[in-house]
Design brief:
Among the domains are: about 60 residues; about 40 residues, no CATH class. With about 150 residues, it is mainly alpha-helical. It is about 60% helix and about 0% strand.
């Protein structure tokens, strides 16, 4: 309940207690508070012990699934799936692990290696020649439609 209370909060409570209650009555209030907490803990432990003695054998079949559920909630999602669905065998997840998949030879790497064996020297390869289309000389006369390349350039 108070697991997230830090030392800063405790110091603030003590300072407020000194101001509100006063330094004379503060030790007595702390003792009373301590006694109340101790009495509550004792009563809770006695109630647990009494219930366990009365209904202990009847609730054993309920305790096992609850304890198993508690262990599953403490696990991560992958461990919980592995334990419940795959009985602890996590070899199925290895097929989806990207680190292991990338470490293995893939079909693409094999194909590139095969192509590298049969590839010729890049210096020997010739580039295909492109033929330029020559335009007829433009005399400055507009072509059909009143358009001329001389107007653009």
């Amino acid at each position: 309940m108070f697991s997230d209370v830090g030392w800063g909060e405790i110091l603030v409570i003590i300072v407020v207690g000194l101001i509100v209650i006063g330094p004379e009555r503060l030790p007595k209030v702390i003792q009373d508070l301590r006694a109340a907490i101790f009495a509550a803990r004792t009563a809770i432990n006695n109630a647990k012990q009494g219930l366990n003695e009365e209904f202990g054998s009847e609730f054993d079949d309920f305790r096992k699934p609850v304890a198993e559920l508690a262990t599953l909630t403490r696990m991560g999602p992958r461990a919980a799936l592995t334990k419940t669905l795959l009985d602890g065998d996590d070899s199925l997840f290895d097929a989806f692990d990207p680190k292991k998949v990338m470490a293995e030879d893939t079909a693409g790497e094999t194909e590139r290696a095969r192509a590298a064996l049969y590839q010729t020297d890049p210096k020997q390869e010739t580039t295909p020649e492109t033929n330029k289309v020559e335009r007829p000389d433009d005399d400055g006369k507009p072509a059909a439609g009143g358009f001329s390349w001389a107007d653009i350039t």
